[in-house]
Design goal:
single chain, 211 residues, Rossmann fold, 12 helices, binds magnesium ion
Length: 211
């Protein structure tokens, strides 16, 4: 077994406030319920053969193409074509940094550990999410689904991250708010912490790293 050398963190919902607030802002801006948004995603996936959110996060469609596909699916449900104002802008207006987790990443670095960011994200959103925190100060490596063409929980994006940082899986702790993303990391041999709240992650990380 390797000694832990690196902490790999998710972005949305870990280093930020919960994403559900952003999705609520999107739904409110168009006047739809979460159920209708979910139905639109499912119907678009059935018609096009791919979940549009996954396509967006893998950089295979743009932000505009995404809202186009969602509008196509919502039109018959609503009886009119919804008006999306800039999707990314609405999303980020409702999202805020989590200063407790940002401090914890700094503490990890002060204690001599390496740090990387592994995010399911959107190409065109890079300037918006990067402006929320000092990314290059906090992380030596960023792996962004929108630029590498696959997304968590696909094992390939974890393997790509490990090859970029040149470490075995068991030398890494992975933090993510989604259980499915943590499970994929466990399957590859990483230690994982599922984010529920900052204090809980701090306790678990201190235990794992002996800080
Ligand atoms: Mg997340």
């Amino acid at each position: 077994m390797s000694r832990i050398e690196m902490v790999i963190s998710d972005f949305g919902g870990v280093l930020t406030t919960p994403l559900v607030e952003s999705f609520m802002a999107i739904q409110d801006s168009v006047g739809i319920s979460p159920e209708q948004f979910g139905r639109a995603l499912a119907e678009s996936a059935a018609v096009t053969g791919a979940n549009p959110l996954f396509e967006l996060e893998c950089g295979r469609i743009t932000d505009d193409e995404f809202t186009g596909r969602i509008s196509d699916a919502l039109e018959p449900i609503l009886g009119h074509r919804p008006r999306f104002r800039e999707f990314g802008l609405t999303f980020f207006e409702a999202l805020h940094p989590n200063p407790g987790m940002i401090d914890l990443i700094r503490e990890v670095k002060r204690n001599g550990y390496r740090t990387a960011l592994l995010t399911n994200n959107v190409r065109e959103w890079e300037p918006m999410w990067r402006s929320m925190l000092p990314v290059d100060e906090l992380f030596e490596t960023v792996v962004d689904s929108g630029f590498v063409g696959c997304r968590k929980p696909d094992p390939r994006i974890y393997e790509l991250t490990l090859s970029r940082v040149d470490l075995p899986a068991d030398a890494c702790v992975f933090i993510d708010d989604l259980e499915i993303n943590c499970e994929a990391a466990v399957d590859l041999g990483m230690k994982t912490i599922q984010f529920r709240e900052t204090a809980q992650v701090r306790v678990e990380l201190h235990q794992l790293l002996g800080m």
